[in-house]
Amino acid sequence: MSNYKWTGTLRPKYPLSAKREVPSHIPRPDYADHPRGESEIEMRGSNKLKNLNAEEIEGMRKVCKLAREVLELTASHIRPGITTDELDKICHEACFHGDLNATYPVGKVDPASMELIKTTKEALDESIAICKPGVLYRYVSLTLTLTGVDGQHAGGLGMLTDVWGFSSCRDIGNKIESIVKPKGFSIVRQYTGHGIDQRFHCNPNIVHYAGSKTPGKMEVGHCFTIEPMINAGTAALDHWKDDWTAVTRDGARSAQFEDVVL
């Protein structure tokens, strides 16, 4: 990390503990042993959205429940002075791998940061609330045409006789943006939600900002994550030289929550 231009006040604490080993009886995804953490199965995977069958749905429900229990167990140890390396050890020893996250205040936190956390959680919850079979992943803009009594397009204040082509269109990104932008926060575009099944990342691609181009619509058996990353300042990110840690380019605080939608 020498010669790295830091943003904000966050710093790594070295030395880190030794690499933690996964017990041999636990099946490994192919990316676990890849030198760059890449999955050949995901890269070769079909773009078609998969509908999980009844057995897979039940398995995913079990996985999500266990992952939530591990997250809450780990979070219960958060306190001023504890390192993320120590939290990693607690999580690792619970021996489970899932895909969800949350932002936790440590000790007394300023009101502006608490508002950022609250807004990010609200954005996740409200976007989950619109998910159901038939909802489009892609944003669709429809035109509302109002026709007056004389057959001309109505304008201003007048009596309307017909309404044509009106529909309420909602998608995940627009819902999140409608909650976040009025507060003056920004939405990170570099990271998205994603489909999840036996593969860790697959279609659909879930963006957290307005104007999604993701094709298709939600169906029974689809499984994906929603994980908005919301910043108090700029949406632009930088990355530490550990090739993992993402930080805001202006050093402002960020919050994120993630859940799996089935």
The gist of it:
It is built from five helices and eleven strands. With 262 residues, it is α+β, with helices and mostly antiparallel strands. The chain has a single domain (50-261), classed as Creatine Amidinohydrolase, CATH 3.90.230.
Helix-strand blueprint:
Blueprint lengths: L39 H5 L9 H22 L8 H10 L17 H19 L15 E4 L11 E5 L7 H9 L5 E2 L5 E3 L6 E5 L17 E3 L2 E3 L5 E3 L6 E3 L5 E3 L2 E3 L1
Antiparallel strand pairs: 1-2, 3-7, 4-5, 6-11, 7-10, 8-9
Helix pairs in contact: 2-3, 4-5
CATH architecture annotation: Alpha-Beta Complex
Provide the spatial order of strands within the biggest beta sheet.
3-7-10
| Unreliably modeled segments | 151-169
What's the helix-strand series?
HHHHEEHEEEEEEEEE
Structural class: alpha+beta
Number of domains: 1
Biggest sheet statistics? 3 strands, antiparallel
Helicity, as a percent range: 10-25%
Distance between the termini: 40 Å
What is the radius of gyration?
Answer: 22 Å
Shape: globular
Query: For this structure, what is the CATH class?
Result: Alpha Beta
Mean pLDDT: 86
**What's the CATH topology label?**
Creatine Amidinohydrolase
Q: Specify the number of helices.
A: 5
Count all strands and give the number.
Answer: 11
CATH superfamily: Creatinase/methionine aminopeptidase superfamily
Beta-strand proportion: 5-15%
